[in-house]
Amino acid sequence: MKKYLVGGAVRDSLLNIPIKEKDWVVVGSSPEEMINLGFLPVGKSFPVFLHPKNYEEHALARTECKHGSGHTGFFFQTSPKITLKQDLKRRDLTVNAIAKDEKGNLIDPYGGLNDLKLRCLRHISNAFQEDPLRVLRVARFAAYLAHLNFFIASETLKKMSDMIHELSDLSVERIWLETKKALLSYNPQIYFKVLLQCGALNKIFPEISYLFQNSNSVKPPIRKDLGQKTLSALSIIVCLSDDIAVRFATLCYNFGKLNQNNLKNNIKKNKTKHSSILLNSMFSRLKLPRKILILSKIFICYHNILKKIFFMNPKKIILFLNHIDVWRKPHRINEIIAINKAHLCNLGNFKYHLYAPEMLLKKIYKLASTIKVENIIQDGFIGFKIKNELTERRKKIIEKEIFNVKIFKKNNFL
């Protein structure tokens, strides 16, 4: 038996990117031999084993044959006679089909090394189109490698466009897994841009795809740059937060600007309600994490908080702080500020994304949080009067702070 390092580990090492995990292909062996050598079997549809010491994945060389729909409709065959070249041919992209033996020699039967030099993501064979999951994977690789100027070969993008009719066969779990990985990359906006280019965005995220449509048949028409501004803000939020909930909520920022008359839902002209319907539809269909749904809804309600903070009265500020549950989840302040800043920077409102509004909001929260329920109880308040007194004291301290910063308005901070 021989084993070869394959896939992302080889690709990333050649690109001087830190290797996250190592995968190995084993040629000339059998399940029985692997078990006898102490490897731990974990595969169900095809034999995959964990190394007994470092727990790295070792898969027997295999071929595959399409027999059903979706990314699970494959029949896998393993045999000691299957060659490394046959195994590598079943992979998606040439840059992922480079192998390295135990002596460090590279095996590259499909031109992956040349495509690495060209910075090109190219499919290996026509078998690429048999697995619709590869549409999302290629989009994710484009986002992952965008900082190195990688691009998708035109013929590969064409095949991706031809495959979108099968995207409905993908499980929501796999859709979210690829999307999550893309959101955590340096350039998550590229993932959604590629899906838009090949027509997959409308199949997977129709709510986000709708941001790119420009209909003049209704009044007011959708701004044709709404989608591009959303992706631009997503590229900015990467520098401000690595929280996936914050990044995804940034995508939902402009839902409130969509014209509900263009949708099938017959609802009242209420932007917040309309946006919630869009969010609930997307999150229930894709079974996305509830944490992200909550933050997305909060942000749609308060996407202009930094612009408005100097003009809000203490009562509204208290309602805002209560609504975002900041007393139990203080991190919400930084999340709200980060998304606001991303979109304000994107619009070119640099004076808003800077010092004054952000510092005021943080100071208001800090001062208001010094008012404790315990102190109110000690002062003799009971029952519902505790909550009323808590609100009143917070309002007074906020009102005093706002009065102290009126000078900001006169000095062109707003």
UniProtKB/TrEMBL annotation:
GO molecular function, one term: CCACCA tRNA nucleotidyltransferase activity
Record keywords: ATP-binding, Magnesium, Metal-binding, Nucleotide-binding, Nucleotidyltransferase, RNA repair, RNA-binding, Transferase, tRNA processing
Positions with a binding annotation for ATP: 8, 11, 91, 137, 140
Reaction(s) the record says it catalyses: a tRNA precursor + 2 CTP + ATP = a tRNA with a 3' CCA end + 3 diphosphate; a tRNA with a 3' CCA end + 2 CTP + ATP = a tRNA with a 3' CCACCA end + 3 diphosphate
Residues annotated as binding Mg(2+): 21, 23
Domain Poly A polymerase head: 4-122
EC number: 2.7.7.72
Cofactor: Mg(2+)
Domain of life according to the entry: Bacteria
Enzyme class: transferase
InterPro entries tied to this protein: CCA_bact, NT_sf, PolA_pol_head_dom, PolyA_RNA-bd, tRNA_CCA-adding_enzyme
A Pfam family the protein falls into: PolyA_pol
Binding site for CTP: 8, 11, 91, 137, 140
Domain (tRNA nucleotidyltransferase/poly(A) polymerase RNA and SrmB- binding) ranges: 149-209
Protein purpose: Catalyzes the addition and repair of the essential 3'-terminal CCA sequence in tRNAs without using a nucleic acid template. Adds these three nucleotides in the order of C, C, and A to the tRNA nucleotide-73, using CTP and ATP as substrates and producing inorganic pyrophosphate. tRNA 3'-terminal CCA addition is required both for tRNA processing and repair. Also involved in tRNA surveillance by mediating tandem CCA addition to generate a CCACCA at the 3' terminus of unstable tRNAs. While stable tRNAs receive only 3'-terminal CCA, unstable tRNAs are marked with CCACCA and rapidly degraded.
Misc. remarks from the entry: A single active site specifically recognizes both ATP and CTP and is responsible for their addition.
Name this protein carries in UniProt: CCA-adding enzyme
